[in-house]
Amino acid sequence: LKNIPAAAGKTEAIAALKARKAALDRTATRLRHALEEAMCRGDAFTGAELIELARHPLLAPSLARLVWLGDGSAGYLVEGGLALRDARGQLQPLGATEPVRLAHTIDLLARGDLHLWQRDCFEAGRVQPFKQVFREVYPLTAAERDEREGTERYRGQQVRSAHAVALLAGRGWINTMEDGLRRAWHQHRLGAWLTFDEYFYAASELPVLTVRTVSFATLDTFEPLRPADVPPVVFSEAMRDVDLAVSVAHVSGVDPEATASTVELRAALVRETCALLNLGNVVVDGRWATITGTLATYRVHLGAGLVHLQPGGMLVLVPVSAQHRGRLFLPFADDDPVTAEVLSKVILLARDQDLRDPALLAAIRRQ
Predict the structure, then answer these.
(1) Domain limits of the chain?
(2) CA angle 162, 227, 136 (to 5 degrees)
(3) How far apart are the C-alpha atoms of 230 and 245, rounded to whole Å?
(4) pLDDT of amino acid 180
């Protein structure tokens, strides 16, 4: 049965089971968030501790779908926490006292094997409990390596203050009134500050704010830190938060220049999806996926999801609905409707010989 019959659902036993399931779902969500925070903080576990955690019935499935870093090794937790399996299938035993932590995307990028983990997720059909190997990542730019105090990567971007403040508050940022918004990384004894040109107002006092800088300083003495001296994971996560706020709360809607990392993530997803489905007529180039179809050549913008027909013209495709989104494979549990929309359009147009919608076919042939 897909659903419990209405009459049966009212019985005491079924009601108790449904309540128990709801409680377990809430616990699983909390555990998922706790694991994501542990990844961002760089929390270390011992091999013995992982063996104990792997016995937890709610934790075990999530632990097994995440990439861990050991002493010189990286892999998925296998054999009840006794070993790590790398992207090529090789097993590395874990010592009882060996320090192990969840790999952050920027760790795998620095190792040079991020693409292997991304491909492995697709080939195995592995859905991670949160974005790990397909997480938006923000390394330092060449210019930021030479900056003395903070980065101006988003300078001049205008955001709706109420929306931006609410988004960042949900990610641990505090409105300090006089110094913009701040997020603290207590384990590193440092903080990130997001400041605005309207510095003489509290962040929530004006309808629109203009981003100035993202800077870092110690929490003890407030001594400014050069971006190059900030731990890479902290820098990446701070910039990921700000990128989200700038993109979603931008006064003119999503700003295409503020979502470069998201575009890179979608480009990787498109490449791996096309490889998995043997779609050889799709080429990813920068912010665009070019599809050489049977009926026409299309270009899908990886940021906005807009479809252009070549040599000119637009093609309007209805976004994939929430109820059908589950038919698309995304290697993470986070809801990401725009990414699902982009993937669905690329797949649909790559197989345009199978299109049957008369209105869509007419629109393509009119161009």
Answers:
(1) 15-124, 142-257, 260-366
(2) 60
(3) 21
(4) 87
Label the pairing between strands 44-46 and 67-69: unpaired
B/e letters for 276-298, b = 16+ CB within 10 Å, e = fewer, are eeebeebebeebbbbbebeebeb
Q: Are 156 and 210 in contact (CB under 8 A)?
A: yes
Predicted confidence at residue 253, as pLDDT, reads: 58
Beta-carbon contacts of residue 335 (< 8 Å; ≥ 6 apart): none
222 DSSP 8-state letter: -
pLDDT (tens digit per residue) in 24-64: 999 999 999 999 999 999 999 999 999 999 999 999 999 99
Task: Give me the torsion for CA of 51, 57, 63, 65, rounded to 10°.
Answer: 130
Query: How high is the pLDDT of residue 136?
Result: 87
pLDDT at 259: 60
Average pLDDT, the chain: 86
Sequence-ordered strand ranges (E) for 237-341 = 282-285, 288-292, 297-301, 307-309, 314-315
> Can you tell me the distance from the alpha carbon of 5 to that of 81, in angstroms, rounded to the nearest whole number?
41
186 with 219: CB under 8 angstroms?
A: yes
Residue 331 token pair: 């290697």
Predicted structure pTM score: 0.76
Q: What is the pLDDT of residue 324?
A: 43
Quote the pLDDT of residue 323.
44
**Calpha distance 283→313 (Å, rounded):** 20
Dist CA 233 CA 69 (whole Å):
14
Residues of the chain with pLDDT under 50: 255-258, 321-326
Report the C-alpha gap between 245 and 169 in whole angstroms: 10
Is 3.30.310 the CATH classification of the domain at 142-257? yes
